[in-house]
Amino acid sequence: MKRKRRHLTAEFKAQAVELISTGSPMSQFEAKNFLLTKQKRSKNRLHLKHIFPFFHFSFLLFKFPLYPPMLRAILRNSGIHPRRIRSSLTGWRRYATERASFRKMPGADALPWGRELPILTEWVESSGSLGAYFYQDQLVAQWIHGAKPNRHLDVGSRLDGFIGSLSVFREVEVIDIRPQPRPVRNVSFHQIDLMDELPLQWIESTDSLSCLHTIEHFGLGRYGDPIDAAGHLKGLIQMKRMVKRGGLFYLSTPIGTQRVEFNAHRIFAVDTVLNWFSEGWEIVKFAIIDDQDQVNESVDWRGHTVGENYGCQSGVGIVVARKM
Fold first, then answer.
1. Closest CA to 249 of 229, 272, 273, 268
2. HSE-up of 109 (CA within 13 Å, CB side)?
3. Which residue(s) pair with 172 in the sheet?
4. Which string of DSSP letters, residue by residue, matches 149-210?
5. Buried (b) or exposed (e) across 251-264, using 16+ Cβ within 10 A?
């Protein structure tokens, strides 16, 4: 049986050359064997760099214990949804049965068999997600289409929802703290942090501005923005400065019992949102999407139900205000 040849790494080859060149009594063969033994011991030694991740993780567990909500959040953010595991296992049984039936059907080999992509849960799901974001995007896009502004700016709204809808019928400029490397037809992008001082060219620069489901995130660090407890107020001030007199501001945010759900978002009481426009602005429309995703396009924002947040705990309030 052939013995496996051992080789010095580049680091230990350099040491061998140095050892021989310094006049060591060792022969070249002896020097190589000596350094091969040293190299093997070095590989087997437990270095600090190997155990540091373990101690780092242990320290994190000590400082930030994995209580159940945090553990669920880590699993969810890693793409693991415990509640879907059961339906996935049920779906796997159905998938295997239907796959076998399909392969036996006449004509099943008409197309080459490619890599398999098992979809295991969509048998029991609806034809699409029609949550608050969908209704909000549809409603505000309809309002802007009717208003026909000369220029429309948006701050932080979803590119794959609201902005996509607007770009079908008009040009829209998007401001976000995050980069957007891909070009989109009818959409131009500006990377700006609105918690900083507003550049002069943006002051009173538009007759139409939207900010849908974004203001509640300012200053929570979720999107890489700096932590700032007053971040939403700083952003709101800057956005108000961007609108010309007579221009419209379309703003939506979660409504309910006022609270911070760090670091996802804030939820504001209805009277808090309305008070943002109490001076220098006229509220033109106020709509809500309640906790059951029912849309009320026009509610009385002066009624007694304002203080009760229209019965919402995690609804959506949509304000359209004109700058006076």
1. 273
2. 1
3. 187
4. -S--EEES--IIIIIHHHHHHS-EEEEESS---S-BTTEEEEE--TTSPPPGGGTT-EEEEE
5. bbbbbbeeeeeeee
Please say whether the beta carbons of 8 and 16 come within 8 A. Answer: yes
Cα gap 324→321, rounded to integer Å: 9
Q: What is the H or E stretch that residue 38 is in?
A: helix 28-44
Residue-wise pLDDT for 35-66, tens only, equals: 566 655 555 554 545 545 555 555 555 566 66
Looking at residue 16, its pLDDT comes to 56
Three-state DSSP state, 237: helix
Question: pTM (2 decimals)?
Answer: 0.77
Counts for the chain of helices (H) and strands (E), in that order: 9, 10
Residues forming a β-bridge with 319: 251, 286
Q: Which residues, including other chains, have CB under 8 Å from residue 145's CB and lie 6 or more apart?
A: 169, 170
Q: Is the pLDDT of residue 8 over 60?
A: no
